[in-house]
């Protein structure tokens, strides 16, 4: 790795973060490169720290936490910044997708020996995402999962909340215009930059973070047969069939809804909207990966 220093931006509330282990990892890195530890103080602080640290193009700004921590760092990282990952979250989808080890010592070695690779990012209005933008049922569930069950049960807390919320959920009708041409409708929509979603589900098995496009998956309905069939396809890594969902790739999308809907970007829930512009930003992120 050609950079001169590493700054570990640590979310102390991430499920897998243990202070002693983080300090031991930092000490290991410090044997090879100038290393600093930055503990975040609350929501949004990782974005502020990434903007400050990433202003130095010789510093590898490393998100230590889950996909939500990566999301915060990504949204603060300047254009010249370089991102690293030490996965310590619930699902660690981004690390799994990019082949970054989940064991901290091995992930730290990957920071030292990995290459600076270039990836696409997505943009939802004024916010960036790397993994996926989901609208609206998954955001509805994510917003309702309590902190303690999430910390204790991990991704199973989302599964339980899904079962609890689904019987009374009324899906919206969403319209998505693709590249200013085709328009499709659905009850649940994903804009994917990676194949994986929610841990081990593959809704968009053809998505790649370096092809200059986002993959759209729009479930036609959210009835129980559609949902079960879609989940089965995602679980078996075959993806969601065209009989269940509209599927295509694009560079620019316009989403409209008849009522305010929630969205989650890489697991972080935003305020409800009735309209959003979603675009891909090709080769806009430099990230150290094996």
- Our count of domains comes out at 2
Secondary structure tally, helices: 9
Query: How many angstroms separate the termini?
Result: 10 Å
The CATH class designation of the largest domain is: Mainly Beta
> Which stretches are poorly predicted, pLDDT < 50 over at least 5 residues?
none
Biggest beta sheet summary: 10 strands, mixed
What is the β-strand count?
Answer: 16
Helix content range: 25-40%
The Rg value, from CA coordinates, equals 19 Å
Succession of helices and strands: EHEHEHEHHEEEHHHEEEEHEEEEE
pLDDT averaged over residues: 91
Supply the CATH architecture of the largest domain: Sandwich
C-alpha geometry: globular
Strand content: 25-35%
Please identify the structural class as seen in this structure. Answer: alpha+beta
Q: Which fold name corresponds to the CATH topology of the largest domain?
A: Tumour Suppressor Smad4
């Amino acid at each position: 790795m050609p950079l001169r220093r590493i700054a570990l931006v640590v979310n102390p509330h991430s499920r897998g973060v243990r202070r002693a282990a983080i300090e031991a990892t930092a000490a290991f890195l410090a044997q090879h490169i100038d290393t600093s530890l930055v503990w975040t103080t609350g929501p949004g602080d990782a974005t502020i720290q990434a903007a400050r640290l990433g202003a130095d193009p010789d510093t590898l700004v490393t998100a230590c936490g889950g996909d939500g921590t990566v999301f915060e760092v990504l949204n603060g990282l300047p254009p010249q910044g370089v991102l690293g990952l030490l996965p310590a979250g619930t699902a660690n989808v981004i690390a799994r997708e990019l082949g970054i080890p989940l064991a901290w010592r091995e992930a730290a070695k990957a920071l030292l020996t990995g290459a600076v690779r270039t990836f696409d990012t997505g943009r939802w209005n004024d916010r960036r995402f790397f993994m996926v933008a989901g609208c609206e049922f998954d955001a509805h569930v994510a917003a309702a999962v309590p902190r303690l069950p999430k910390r204790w049960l991990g991704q199973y807390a989302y599964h339980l909340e899904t079962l609890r919320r689904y019987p009374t959920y009324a899906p919206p009708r969403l319209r998505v215009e693709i590249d200013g041409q085709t328009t499709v409708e659905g009850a649940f929509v994903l804009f994917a930059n990676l194949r994986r979603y929610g841990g081990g589900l593959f809704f968009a098995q053809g998505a790649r973070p370096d092809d200059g496009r986002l993959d759209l998956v729009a479930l036609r309905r959210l009835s129980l047969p559609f949902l079960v069939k879609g989940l089965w396809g995602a679980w078996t890594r075959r993806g969601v069939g065209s009989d269940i969902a509209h599927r295509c790739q694009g560079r620019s999308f316009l989403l409209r809804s008849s009522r305010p809907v929630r969205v989650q970007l890489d697991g972080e829930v935003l305020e409800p909207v009735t309209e959003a512009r979603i675009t891909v930003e090709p080769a806009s992120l430099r990230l150290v990966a094996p």
